[in-house]
Amino acid sequence: MNKHNVTLAISAGRRDQLLRDGKCQIALSGRSNVGKSSCLNKLLGRKSLARVSSSPGKTVTVNFFNVDGKCYLVDLPGYGYAKRSESEKRVWSNLTDSYFQNNDHLALVLQLMDLKTGPSRDDRTMISYMQEMGIPFVIIATKLDKLNKTNGAKNLKALEDEFFPTPVFPFSSLSGFGADSVWSLIEKTVEVFEAP
Ligand code: GTP
Ligand code: MG
């Protein structure tokens, strides 16, 4: 799979724009500002394919990136952004609920968590939701660069213990640490999805 052959297929702001066209989907989920768009850019080796912002709530649509005609990497809007209005939150939950419900093209969710701050209440709710829905997911523990070795290892262990047996991938969009491992997982997932 050629990761450099990428196009934005659609920025879906309404449920009828969500794509279900046979290609496998791998989605990035997590709270607002955790680094989903940065992670996607790093995985694809691009600077600003997905829009990154220091102010939370940047991604408000479900963005489908077509990778080499083989799969979609899906950048989801983040949850837990307190400053959103009630109506914005409703739009968010309608859209993301529609995205997750009955989506048999969804092969894997990359659930991002901030390694420094650890899981939030919303992160735990999200994990329970995916477990109940039977959605396959792994945890990407991001912003590894913000911690020293000792604390990085300590916080990783805490995540692994809490969410055992879910695999936890240490990651940094700044240094690129973990990008190769996560990319291999994505390729493997696409292969398995395509296998007859
Ligand atoms: P929403 O679109 O609001 O849901 O946010 P997002 O999850 O897409 O986060 P985004 O990628 O826009 O990043 C938010 C902020 O975190 C930006 O200022 C990034 O530069 C920063 N950031 C993201 N990943 C990392 C990382 O691995 N290390 C460090 N130090 N900063 C990061
Ligand atoms: Mg984003």
Write a concise keyword list for the protein shown above:
single chain; 196 residues; alpha/beta; Rossmann fold; seven-stranded mixed beta sheet; 34% helix; globular; binds guanosine-5'-triphosphate; binds magnesium ion
List the helices and strands and how they pair.
Elements: E1 6-12, E2 24-29, H1 36-43, E3 62-67, E4 71-75, H2 86-100, E5 106-114, H3 121-133, E6 137-142, H4 149-163, E7 168-170, H5 179-194
Parallel strand pairs: 2-4, 2-5, 5-6, 6-7
Antiparallel strand pairs: 1-3, 3-4
The structure holds guanosine-5'-triphosphate and magnesium ion.
Guanosine-5'-triphosphate is lined by residues 30, 32-38, 52-54, 56-59, 77-78, 142-143, 145-146, 172-174.
Please describe what this structure looks like.
The chain has 196 residues and is an alpha/beta fold. It has one domain (6-194): P-loop containing nucleotide triphosphate hydrolases (Rossmann fold). The protein has helices spanning 36-43, 86-100, 121-133, 149-163, 179-194; strands spanning 6-12, 24-29, 62-67, 71-75, 106-114, 137-142, 168-170. It has a 7-stranded mixed beta sheet, with helices on both faces. A hairpin with a 3-residue loop joins strand 3 (62-67) and strand 4. The protein is globular. The mean pLDDT is 93. It binds guanosine-5'-triphosphate and magnesium ion. Guanosine-5'-triphosphate binds at residues 30, 32-38, 52-54, 56-59, 77-78, 142-143, 145-146, 172-174.
